[in-house]
Each structure stands twice: as C-alpha cells, then as structure tokens.
Amino acid sequence: MSTTAAAMPPLTEKKLEKKPIKFSNFLLGAGLNLFEVTTLGQPLEVVKTTMAANRGDSFAAALGRIWNRGGFFGYYQGLIPWAWIEASTKGAVLLFVASEAEYYARVAGANEFGGGIIGGVTGGVAQAYATMGFCTCMKTVEITQHKLAASGVKPKSTFATFMDIYRKEGIRGINKGVNAVAIRQMTNWGSRFGLSRLAEQGIRKVTNKEHGEKLGAAEKILASALGGGLSAWNQPIEVIRVEMQSKTEDPNRPKKMTVGSTARYIYQQNGLKGLYRGVAPRIGLSVWQTVCMVAMGDMAKTYVEKLTGDKVTAKH
C-alpha cells in the first residue's frame, strides 16, 4: 500500500490562468453587438419601448403606432447613431470588465457558476454607467417624442434634442434613468449567465451528456434561448427606465423621477400589468441577444481562432 501511495503523484489544484485581453476580443464583441441590433434587435427594442411608454396599447396597436409614424423605417428609429454607438461600445466594456471580475472572483474562491454571475453583474453595471446611460436615454427620447408631433408641436432633430437636454440639465439630464439601466443590466446579465447554465444542465441530463461532453450547436442555441427568454422577469425595471427617460408631459408625474417614485406612478396609473407592458417583445429581444452573443459568439470565436491561431475569449 505504501508502494502504491509512493507511486501516485500528489494531486495538485488546477491553477487559474489569467487570459489576456486582446484587440480582436473588442472587435468581436462590438461586431456581434452591431449585428444583433441591426437585424432584429432594434425593431424589438422599438416595439418594447413603445409598449412601455404607451401602456394602454396592445401588441398589435403598438405595431400600428410605429408603422403610422414611420413605416418600415419606424421600427429602426434610434438605430443611427445611438443604437450603433451603444452596440459598438457596450460589447467592449462588458468583455473587459466581466472577464476581469470573473477572474478575480474565482481567485477569491468563487466556483465557476458564482464567478460567472459576478462577472455578468459587474460587467452589466459597467456597461450602464460607461456608455449605455446616455444612449438608451436618447433612443427613448427619439421613440417617445412623436407624442409632441401628435399635439401639433414639431419635434426637434436628434442632435438638437441632445444639446437642448445637455444645456438644461447637463450630464445628469443626458444620463437620466441610468440607475434603472444599471439595475436592468446587472439583473439581465446575472440572469442570462445563471439561467443559461441551468438550461445547459437540464439539456445535459436529457441527452445523457452529464460527464463533460460538448453540447451541439442546436443545444447551445436552445440553452441560450431559454436563458435569454427567462431573463425577461425584470421587465418592471425596463418599464421604469422608459418612463424616466420619456419626454411625455403629464402633470401627475413626479417632479423628481427616481426609480421608486416612477414605479409608484406607473402602478397608480396602470396597476401591476403596467409594470409588465412590452414583456412579449422583451422576451424576443432577450432570446435574440443571448443567441447572438452566446451561441453565435462561440462560432465566431472558433472562426477567429482558425484565422489567428490564438484563442479569443469573448464575453457577451
């Protein structure tokens, strides 16, 4: 027995390796985000925002409202420049911050699941405060200011509106609703990481791949779709964000729009259902985002590895 013990090498704990952040990682993150928002992302965003701002509208009524104000291109309102600016920057921010946060969480003792959640939450918050605050604000302004036209007032151009808000309210005005965006992003990415992992575990059990076997492309897409769709549970935060950034004139609205006061205002006006307006397009948007950034991200990483001969660590 002593001979056997002596022959066996001591078990060593696998050392965590800090993967380098490369320029190609940033390009990959930005490119995937641009693809997502330019295809189905922005139309779903416009429908979701329209329903959240007009909480009495049904899904069909929201589609009609968008078509009436701009036809086919009405579904892409806010894409240029705000959605493109947001997409091309938030991927890079999330990539860097989430990778760093996950690494240090693992070093501190977190397991793979916990490290992923911490990375997603931290990256989501960084996205909101670094780049998404003013972009989501300006997209919402563009989508909701058609109400001014309905009252006979000609809306200002995109940049005129931006400068007008900046002159009146400064950086705080441009970033109005950024706290709600931060809450949304941290719950978004925490949920997407966690729920996608749970979905993968379920798929592994059903397909008898519980011993580390790789999931197929269709299985990865299914897991991403389930994780993305279920992450829409935080829709009330999105409705609050839209209301905080909306240019709607209502004497009953709180003068100081905080997350709490806005939630109370929406509940008083539309009840609990009002806090979940737009959840259907939001589910579609979450599914598409997660499929693009998880399943398609894996395919893109594999392709880049073949071209460069290096491993690319892309985070969604």
From TrEMBL:
Keywords, comma-separated and alphabetical: Membrane, Mitochondrion, Mitochondrion inner membrane, Transmembrane, Transmembrane helix, Transport
GO cellular component: membrane; mitochondrion
GO terms, biological process: alpha-ketoglutarate transport; mitochondrial citrate transmembrane transport
Cited Gene3D superfamilies: Mitochondrial carrier domain
Solcar repeat start and end residues: 114-202, 219-303
Subcellular compartments: Membrane
One Pfam family cited in the UniProt record for this chain: Mito_carr
GO molecular function annotation: tricarboxylate secondary active transmembrane transporter activity
SUPFAM superfamilies in UniProt: Mitochondrial carrier
Topology of this chain in the membrane: Multi-pass membrane protein
Highest rank taxon of the organism: Eukaryota
Record-stated family: Belongs to the mitochondrial carrier (TC 2.A.29) family.
Protein's name in the database: Mitochondrial DNA replication protein YHM2
Protein source organism: Neoarthrinium moseri
